[in-house]
Amino acid sequence: MTDSSVLAPTAPTVTRRWSGRRWGVIRVISPVVLLGLWQLGSAAGLISQDVLPAPSLIVEAGVELIRNGQLADALQISGARVVIGLLLGGVVGVGLGTAVGLSRWLEATVDPPMQMIRALPHLGLIPLFILWFGIGESPKVLLVALGVSFPLYLNTFSAIRQVDPKLFETAQVLGFSFWQRFRTIIVPSAAPQVLVGFRQSLAIAWLTLIVAEQINADSGIGFLINNARDFLRIDIIIFGLIVYALLGIGTDAGVRALERRALRYRT
Protein backbone atom coordinates (compact mmCIF):
# COMPACT_ATOMS: atom_id res chain seq x y z
CA MET A 1 0.00 0.00 0.00
CA THR A 2 1.44 3.37 -1.03
CA ASP A 3 1.79 5.96 1.68
CA SER A 4 0.11 9.23 0.57
CA SER A 5 2.74 11.19 2.44
CA VAL A 6 5.37 9.88 0.04
CA LEU A 7 3.49 11.29 -2.98
CA ALA A 8 2.80 14.66 -1.34
CA PRO A 9 5.37 17.38 -2.05
CA THR A 10 7.61 18.22 0.85
CA ALA A 11 7.65 21.67 2.43
CA PRO A 12 11.03 22.68 0.93
CA THR A 13 9.77 21.70 -2.54
CA VAL A 14 6.64 23.85 -2.16
CA THR A 15 8.78 26.71 -0.90
CA ARG A 16 11.10 26.48 -3.89
CA ARG A 17 8.16 26.43 -6.30
CA TRP A 18 6.65 29.50 -4.71
CA SER A 19 10.03 31.25 -4.68
CA GLY A 20 10.34 30.62 -8.43
CA ARG A 21 6.82 31.83 -9.19
CA ARG A 22 7.00 34.83 -6.86
CA TRP A 23 9.17 36.87 -9.20
CA GLY A 24 6.84 36.15 -12.12
CA VAL A 25 3.87 37.33 -10.06
CA ILE A 26 5.74 40.49 -9.06
CA ARG A 27 6.60 41.22 -12.71
CA VAL A 28 2.89 41.08 -13.56
CA ILE A 29 1.68 43.05 -10.55
CA SER A 30 4.21 45.91 -10.70
CA PRO A 31 2.91 47.46 -13.99
CA VAL A 32 -0.68 47.15 -12.71
CA VAL A 33 0.26 48.97 -9.49
CA LEU A 34 2.02 51.67 -11.50
CA LEU A 35 -1.06 52.21 -13.68
CA GLY A 36 -3.23 52.34 -10.56
CA LEU A 37 -1.03 55.02 -8.98
CA TRP A 38 -1.04 56.94 -12.27
CA GLN A 39 -4.86 56.85 -12.39
CA LEU A 40 -5.17 57.88 -8.75
CA GLY A 41 -2.70 60.73 -9.21
CA SER A 42 -4.67 62.01 -12.19
CA ALA A 43 -7.98 61.74 -10.34
CA ALA A 44 -6.54 63.64 -7.36
CA GLY A 45 -5.20 66.40 -9.61
CA LEU A 46 -1.57 65.64 -8.79
CA ILE A 47 -0.83 64.90 -12.46
CA SER A 48 -1.93 67.52 -14.96
CA GLN A 49 -4.07 66.18 -17.81
CA ASP A 50 -2.35 68.64 -20.14
CA VAL A 51 0.97 66.94 -19.43
CA LEU A 52 0.06 63.29 -18.89
CA PRO A 53 -3.57 62.20 -19.35
CA ALA A 54 -4.98 59.48 -17.11
CA PRO A 55 -4.80 55.88 -18.36
CA SER A 56 -8.59 55.82 -18.69
CA LEU A 57 -8.47 58.77 -21.12
CA ILE A 58 -5.73 57.07 -23.16
CA VAL A 59 -7.86 53.92 -23.37
CA GLU A 60 -10.84 56.02 -24.50
CA ALA A 61 -8.68 57.60 -27.21
CA GLY A 62 -7.63 54.15 -28.37
CA VAL A 63 -11.23 52.95 -28.49
CA GLU A 64 -12.10 56.03 -30.54
CA LEU A 65 -9.38 55.22 -33.09
CA ILE A 66 -10.47 51.59 -33.26
CA ARG A 67 -14.13 52.45 -33.81
CA ASN A 68 -13.53 54.97 -36.59
CA GLY A 69 -11.13 52.59 -38.36
CA GLN A 70 -8.12 54.92 -38.28
CA LEU A 71 -6.02 52.54 -36.19
CA ALA A 72 -6.62 49.57 -38.50
CA ASP A 73 -5.64 51.61 -41.56
CA ALA A 74 -2.54 52.96 -39.83
CA LEU A 75 -1.47 49.49 -38.65
CA GLN A 76 -1.82 48.10 -42.15
CA ILE A 77 0.32 50.83 -43.69
CA SER A 78 3.00 50.86 -40.96
CA GLY A 79 3.15 47.07 -40.93
CA ALA A 80 3.67 46.98 -44.69
CA ARG A 81 6.54 49.47 -44.41
CA VAL A 82 8.27 47.36 -41.76
CA VAL A 83 7.76 44.09 -43.62
CA ILE A 84 9.12 45.47 -46.91
CA GLY A 85 12.03 47.13 -45.13
CA LEU A 86 12.84 43.91 -43.26
CA LEU A 87 12.78 41.89 -46.46
CA LEU A 88 15.08 44.30 -48.28
CA GLY A 89 17.43 44.77 -45.34
CA GLY A 90 17.35 41.06 -44.49
CA VAL A 91 18.34 39.99 -47.99
CA VAL A 92 21.19 42.51 -48.05
CA GLY A 93 22.38 41.86 -44.49
CA VAL A 94 22.22 38.07 -44.52
CA GLY A 95 23.51 37.87 -48.11
CA LEU A 96 26.52 40.08 -47.51
CA GLY A 97 27.19 38.55 -44.09
CA THR A 98 27.20 35.08 -45.61
CA ALA A 99 29.44 36.07 -48.51
CA VAL A 100 31.93 37.92 -46.31
CA GLY A 101 31.91 35.12 -43.75
CA LEU A 102 32.78 32.56 -46.40
CA SER A 103 35.41 34.56 -48.28
CA ARG A 104 38.55 36.19 -46.93
CA TRP A 105 38.83 38.23 -50.13
CA LEU A 106 35.33 39.67 -49.68
CA GLU A 107 36.09 40.34 -46.05
CA ALA A 108 39.06 42.46 -47.10
CA THR A 109 37.14 44.34 -49.79
CA VAL A 110 33.51 44.54 -48.61
CA ASP A 111 33.73 44.64 -44.82
CA PRO A 112 35.65 47.96 -44.49
CA PRO A 113 33.06 49.99 -46.47
CA MET A 114 30.25 48.26 -44.54
CA GLN A 115 31.84 49.21 -41.23
CA MET A 116 32.22 52.80 -42.40
CA ILE A 117 28.55 53.01 -43.38
CA ARG A 118 27.54 51.31 -40.12
CA ALA A 119 29.30 54.07 -38.18
CA LEU A 120 26.93 56.63 -39.69
CA PRO A 121 23.71 57.32 -37.71
CA HIS A 122 21.16 56.10 -40.23
CA LEU A 123 18.43 58.39 -38.89
CA GLY A 124 20.73 61.33 -39.64
CA LEU A 125 20.45 60.40 -43.31
CA ILE A 126 16.75 61.34 -43.44
CA PRO A 127 17.31 64.74 -45.17
CA LEU A 128 19.56 63.09 -47.74
CA PHE A 129 17.05 60.30 -48.35
CA ILE A 130 14.28 62.86 -48.89
CA LEU A 131 16.42 64.67 -51.46
CA TRP A 132 17.29 61.40 -53.18
CA PHE A 133 13.95 59.58 -53.06
CA GLY A 134 11.34 62.27 -52.41
CA ILE A 135 8.74 62.26 -49.65
CA GLY A 136 6.78 59.15 -50.62
CA GLU A 137 7.13 55.58 -49.38
CA SER A 138 10.65 54.97 -50.68
CA PRO A 139 12.66 56.92 -48.05
CA LYS A 140 10.69 55.38 -45.18
CA VAL A 141 11.11 51.81 -46.42
CA LEU A 142 14.78 52.31 -47.34
CA LEU A 143 15.56 53.80 -43.93
CA VAL A 144 14.07 50.73 -42.27
CA ALA A 145 16.03 48.49 -44.65
CA LEU A 146 19.27 50.33 -43.90
CA GLY A 147 18.71 50.11 -40.15
CA VAL A 148 17.93 46.39 -40.09
CA SER A 149 20.66 45.27 -42.49
CA PHE A 150 23.64 45.86 -40.20
CA PRO A 151 22.62 43.70 -37.19
CA LEU A 152 21.89 40.86 -39.58
CA TYR A 153 25.14 41.43 -41.46
CA LEU A 154 27.28 41.45 -38.31
CA ASN A 155 25.58 38.48 -36.67
CA THR A 156 25.62 36.38 -39.85
CA PHE A 157 29.28 37.16 -40.50
CA SER A 158 30.27 36.42 -36.90
CA ALA A 159 28.19 33.24 -36.74
CA ILE A 160 29.80 31.76 -39.85
CA ARG A 161 33.29 32.57 -38.64
CA GLN A 162 32.59 30.89 -35.29
CA VAL A 163 31.55 27.53 -36.76
CA ASP A 164 33.72 24.76 -35.29
CA PRO A 165 36.58 24.07 -37.78
CA LYS A 166 36.50 20.39 -36.81
CA LEU A 167 33.09 20.12 -38.46
CA PHE A 168 34.57 21.32 -41.74
CA GLU A 169 37.42 18.85 -41.38
CA THR A 170 34.93 16.03 -40.85
CA ALA A 171 32.89 17.16 -43.85
CA GLN A 172 36.02 17.21 -45.99
CA VAL A 173 36.89 13.68 -44.95
CA LEU A 174 33.37 12.56 -45.81
CA GLY A 175 33.62 14.23 -49.22
CA PHE A 176 30.86 16.80 -48.72
CA SER A 177 30.35 19.31 -51.51
CA PHE A 178 30.16 23.04 -50.77
CA TRP A 179 26.35 23.04 -50.73
CA GLN A 180 26.27 20.00 -48.46
CA ARG A 181 28.61 21.76 -46.02
CA PHE A 182 26.54 24.92 -46.26
CA ARG A 183 23.23 23.11 -45.66
CA THR A 184 24.28 20.65 -42.96
CA ILE A 185 26.98 22.58 -41.10
CA ILE A 186 26.91 26.33 -41.71
CA VAL A 187 23.15 26.96 -41.62
CA PRO A 188 22.39 24.98 -38.39
CA SER A 189 25.48 26.39 -36.65
CA ALA A 190 24.81 30.00 -37.64
CA ALA A 191 21.03 29.97 -37.14
CA PRO A 192 20.97 30.87 -33.39
CA GLN A 193 23.09 33.99 -33.80
CA VAL A 194 21.31 35.03 -37.01
CA LEU A 195 17.99 34.86 -35.17
CA VAL A 196 19.46 37.07 -32.46
CA GLY A 197 20.37 39.55 -35.19
CA PHE A 198 16.81 39.32 -36.51
CA ARG A 199 15.44 40.23 -33.08
CA GLN A 200 17.77 43.22 -32.93
CA SER A 201 16.71 44.21 -36.44
CA LEU A 202 13.03 44.14 -35.53
CA ALA A 203 13.59 46.56 -32.66
CA ILE A 204 15.58 48.88 -34.93
CA ALA A 205 12.88 48.62 -37.61
CA TRP A 206 10.15 49.93 -35.31
CA LEU A 207 12.39 52.64 -33.85
CA THR A 208 13.31 53.79 -37.35
CA LEU A 209 9.68 53.80 -38.43
CA ILE A 210 8.69 56.00 -35.49
CA VAL A 211 11.04 58.72 -36.74
CA ALA A 212 10.49 58.16 -40.46
CA GLU A 213 6.70 58.30 -40.22
CA GLN A 214 6.75 61.64 -38.45
CA ILE A 215 8.50 63.36 -41.36
CA ASN A 216 6.31 64.23 -44.34
CA ALA A 217 3.97 61.29 -43.66
CA ASP A 218 0.32 61.27 -44.68
CA SER A 219 -0.53 57.79 -43.36
CA GLY A 220 0.52 55.30 -40.74
CA ILE A 221 0.80 55.43 -36.97
CA GLY A 222 3.31 58.29 -37.14
CA PHE A 223 0.79 60.33 -39.11
CA LEU A 224 -1.81 59.74 -36.38
CA ILE A 225 0.68 61.00 -33.80
CA ASN A 226 1.56 64.09 -35.84
CA ASN A 227 -2.08 64.84 -36.49
CA ALA A 228 -2.83 64.48 -32.77
CA ARG A 229 0.00 66.90 -31.99
CA ASP A 230 -1.60 69.56 -34.18
CA PHE A 231 -4.86 69.20 -32.23
CA LEU A 232 -3.12 68.93 -28.83
CA ARG A 233 -4.42 65.37 -28.30
CA ILE A 234 -1.79 64.08 -25.91
CA ASP A 235 -3.93 61.01 -25.20
CA ILE A 236 -3.74 59.91 -28.84
CA ILE A 237 0.00 60.62 -28.97
CA ILE A 238 0.64 58.39 -25.95
CA PHE A 239 -1.67 55.72 -27.33
CA GLY A 240 0.24 55.74 -30.62
CA LEU A 241 3.52 55.31 -28.77
CA ILE A 242 2.03 52.41 -26.81
CA VAL A 243 0.97 50.80 -30.10
CA TYR A 244 4.55 51.10 -31.37
CA ALA A 245 5.81 49.46 -28.16
CA LEU A 246 3.27 46.64 -28.35
CA LEU A 247 4.16 45.99 -31.98
CA GLY A 248 7.83 45.76 -31.04
CA ILE A 249 7.14 43.41 -28.13
CA GLY A 250 4.74 41.30 -30.18
CA THR A 251 7.07 40.83 -33.13
CA ASP A 252 9.97 40.04 -30.78
CA ALA A 253 7.85 37.39 -29.07
CA GLY A 254 7.03 35.95 -32.48
CA VAL A 255 10.72 35.67 -33.38
CA ARG A 256 11.45 34.07 -30.00
CA ALA A 257 8.75 31.47 -30.67
CA LEU A 258 10.23 30.85 -34.11
CA GLU A 259 13.66 30.53 -32.50
CA ARG A 260 12.44 27.92 -30.03
CA ARG A 261 10.79 25.95 -32.80
CA ALA A 262 13.65 26.18 -35.26
CA LEU A 263 16.27 25.32 -32.65
CA ARG A 264 14.36 22.63 -30.78
CA TYR A 265 16.90 20.08 -31.98
CA ARG A 266 19.47 21.65 -29.62
CA THR A 267 17.51 20.44 -26.59
- Taken as a percent bin, the fraction of beta residues is under 5%
Instruction: Average the pLDDT over all residues and give the rounded result.
Output: 84
Shape descriptor reads globular
Radius of gyration: 25 Å
Number of beta strands: 0
Helix content: over 70%
Q: Could you give the order of the helices and strands?
A: HHHHHHHHHHH
Largest sheet: none
Number of helices: 11
Report the span from N to C terminus: 38 Å
Point out poorly predicted stretches. Answer: none
Which structural class should the secondary elements be placed in?
mainly alpha
Please supply descriptive tags for the structure shown above.
267 residues, 0% strand
Descriptive account of the structure:
With 267 residues, this protein is an all-alpha fold. It contains 11 helices and no strands. Helix 4 runs parallel beside helix 7, helix 6 packs across helix 7 and helix 9 packs antiparallel against helix 11 (234-262). The protein starts with a helix and ends in a 5-residue tail after the last helix. 26% of the residues are buried.
Annotate the secondary structure layout:
Elements: H1 4-7, H2 11-43, H3 55-67, H4 70-102, H5 104-118, H6 126-133, H7 137-161, H8 165-173, H9 178-212, H10 221-230, H11 234-262
Helix pairs in contact: 3-11, 4-5, 4-7, 4-9, 4-10, 6-7, 7-9, 9-11, 10-11
Quick description:
By secondary structure, the chain is mainly alpha-helical. The protein is built from eleven helices and no strands.
